[in-house]
Design goal:
With 354 residues, this protein is α+β, with helices and mostly antiparallel strands. Strands 1, 2, 3, 4, 5, 6, 9 and 17 form an eight-stranded mixed sheet that branches. It starts with a strand and ends in a 5-residue tail after the last helix.
C-alpha cells in the first residue's frame, strides 16, 4: 500500500467517486470544494491511499496561510473504505509528517468519531498514532467538520410514511408548504444560480453572518453543479424566487450547505418546502439520508432540530499537532493583536469559512 499526494485530474475524479460512495465521507473531502481555496493564494492537496489501483482511504488538506504562517488543515477525516479502518493509523501519521515537510507550524484533523451508532461515523477508537497529538483545534479559520444533524430516509415504503415520521408540527409545515403551489427548479445556468445565491447573501447580511462573495464562490459552485455533486434548488411562485437551498452529495447522503428565503406575507414556507424536497431527492436516489447541518441562529437551530432524528458531534475526533512551537507561538501573539481590530480581521479571514 502507498499514500500519494496529488492534484492530477484523473486521480481527483477517482477520489471524488470514492467520496460519494463512502458512508463516513463528507462534502469537505471533494476536490472542487478544496480547489476553491486556491483563488485566495492557499494551496490544497488530496492524499490518496492505494492498494494497487484501488483507493482504500485518504484525506483532503488545505494549506492555509496567514501572514508569514502556514497551517496544514484536514477539515474532515482522514477516512477509509469500509473494512479498511486499520489503515487509518498510517493516514493520520501522514498529516503531521506532511505538515512538517511543507513548512507548516500547525496541523489538525477532524475524525468523524462518535459514541452514537450510525453508519456515517466511526465508533470512538484509540489510535496509537495520536499519542503525540493533543485534543481539540487551535486554528479556527478554516471550517472543519464537527458533526452531522441527521435524518434517515431509509426504511419508508411511501412518501406519506416518511412524512408521518416527523412530529405533528413539522408535518403541518410540510403539508402547508406543499399547498402553496410552489414550483421546484434545479438551477444550473449561471444567471439563475447567481440569483439564488444573491438571495442567500441577502439573508446572511440581514441575519449577521458571512458567506463567501459570489466572485469567490462562483467557480466552485458552478463546477460542482455541472459535475452533479451539488444541486442549487429554487422555490418559485409566479416565476418569482421565494427560496433557495444548496445541497451537496457526498458520503451516500446530501448535506445542506446554505439557503435563503424571502421574508414576506403571506409566508410561503419555502424553507420547509426546500428541506423536504432535498430529503425527497435523497429518497429518490436511494441514498442513506439528509444532513440538515448543525449551527445557525436560534430559530434556524430549532427548525433544523425539528427535522433531524439526532445530532451527532465529533467532539472526540478533533486533534492537533504543533509542528513548529516557536512559529506557532508567534502566530498566537499575532492573532491576539489582530483581535483588537475585529472588523478588519473579519474581512481578511471571512473567506476561510464555509
Amino acid at each position: 500500500m502507498e499514500i500519494i499526494f496529488t492534484k492530477d485530474p484523473i486521480q481527483l475524479r477517482k477520489w471524488d467517486d470514492f467520496v460519494l460512495q463512502q458512508n463516513v465521507a463528507g462534502h469537505l473531502l471533494l476536490s472542487a470544494w478544496n480547489q476553491s481555496f486556491a483563488s485566495y493564494g492557499f494551496d490544497y492537496e488530496i492524499a490518496i491511499q492505494l492498494d494497487g489501483e484501488k483507493i482504500i482511504g485518504g484525506f483532503a488538506a488545505v494549506v492555509a496561510k496567514v501572514a508569514f504562517f502556514k497551517f496544514y488543515i484536514v477539515p474532515f477525516g482522514p477516512i477509509t473504505a469500509s473494512g479498511e479502518t486499520k489503515a487509518l493509523n498510517d493516514l493520520i501519521a501522514k498529516v503531521p509528517d506532511r505538515a512538517q515537510k511543507l513548512g507548516c507550524c500547525y496541523a489538525h484533523i477532524s475524525l468523524p468519531l462518535s459514541d452514537v451508532l450510525n453508519p456515517h461515523v466511526y465508533p470512538v477508537t484509540s489510535f496509537p498514532v495520536l499519542a503525540m497529538a493533543k485534543e481539540g483545534h487551535l486554528f479556527k479559520y478554516v471550517y472543519s467538520a464537527y458533526g452531522i444533524n441527521w435524518k434517515s430516509v431509509q426504511g419508508y415504503e411511501t412518501e406519506e410514511d416518511f412524512i408521518n415520521s416527523f412530529r405533528a408540527s413539522v408535518r403541518r409545515y410540510i403539508r402547508s408548504a406543499q399547498r402553496k403551489d410552489l414550483e421546484l427548479r434545479f438551477l444550473e445556468d449561471e444567471k439563475a444560480v447567481k440569483q439564488a445565491y444573491d438571495l442567500c447573501l441577502e439573508n446572511a447580511a440581514n441575519n449577521g453572518y458571512a458567506l463567501r462573495s459570489w466572485s469567490a464562490f462562483k467557480t466552485t459552485l458552478m463546477t460542482m453543479i455541472q459535475n452533479k455533486q451539488a444541486h442549487f434548488m429554487g422555490a418559485f411562485y409566479d416565476n418569482n424566487i421565494k427560496g433557495a437551498s444548496l445541497v451537496i452529495k457526498a458520503g451516500n447522503h446530501y448535506t445542506y450547505i446554505l439557503g435563503g428565503t424571502k421574508k414576506e406575507k403571506p409566508d410561503f414556507l419555502a424553507g420547509h418546502y426546500l428541506h423536504f424536497e432535498a430529503m425527497r431527492l435523497a429518497m429518490q436516489e436511494k441514498l442513506s439520508g439528509y444532513n440538515i447541518s448543525l449551527g445557525g441562529s436560534k430559530g434556524v437551530i430549532s427548525l433544523k432540530s425539528s427535522y433531524a432524528d439526532t445530532q451527532i458531534y465529533y467532539d472526540k475526533g478533533k486533534y492537533h499537532w504543533i509542528i513548529r512551537p516557536t512559529h506557532f507561538k508567534a502566530y498566537q501573539i499575532f492573532e491576539k493583536h489582530l483581535k483588537k481590530h475585529k472588523n478588519t480581521i473579519a474581512k481578511l479571514l471571512s473567506f476561510f469559512k464555509r
